[in-house]
Design brief:
The chain is mainly β. It has a single domain, classed as Roll (Pnp Oxidase, Chain A), CATH 2.30.110. It contains two helices and nine strands; from the N terminus they run αββββββαβββ. Strands 3-4-2-1-7-8-9-6-5 form a nine-stranded mixed sheet, covered by helices on one side. The longest helix has 11 residues. The mean pLDDT is 80.
């Protein structure tokens, strides 16, 4: 039995450390939940230092409804991350979020492959930032991609 399977089944001395890499507006933030900063090795072999802060994560559901969103809340006491995300969403820039988790006994690589999501929306208060990130929403995607509308094809008005 692997350590991760044992951790999920019956706990043990190891702790699961969840991390977020937020790339938005040309800036990268490395965050981890908890009280202590950690330095961990990424999947490509590079090292990154994750800053400890208050994070609450809700992982995407494994279902077939077409929307798999990761919702997370981070501390907004200093407002650094929230201001950057707010500016990027206001300027319609694309921000991404990469979720990784490590075991406290092995920071040499993530325990499972990380997944990267696109930041969709956010909600801010003076104390907390709540962000929704997700994969491409297939259900809200138009098909065919090119829509035949009157501004693009004015001759459609005369087709009966």
């Amino acid at each position: 039995m692997t350590i991760l399977n044992r951790l999920y089944a019956s706990s043990g001395s190891e702790v699961l450390i969840e991390t977020l890499q937020i790339d938005v507006g040309g800036v990268t933030y490395w965050l981890t939940s908890g009280w202590d900063d950690i330095t961990a090795t990424l999947e490509n072999g590079a090292q990154a230092t994750f800053t400890a802060c208050g994070i609450d994560l809700s992982l995407p559901a494994r279902n077939s409804d077409g929307t798999q969103d990761l919702k997370f809340a981070i501390c907004n006491i200093d407002g650094t991350v929230s201001n950057t995300i707010r500016d990027a969403l206001g300027n319609q820039e694309i921000g991404t979020l990469t979720y990784r988790h490590y075991l406290s006994t092995d920071l040499s690589a993530p325990e499972s492959p990380p997944f990267t999501l696109t930041i969709k929306s956010g909600y801010w208060t003076p104390i907390v930032v709540q962000i929704t990130a997700g994969y491409m929403n297939v259900l809200d995607t138009a098909w065919p991609r090119r829509r035949f509308t009157l501004p693009d094809f004015p001759g459609l008005r005369y087709i009966s």
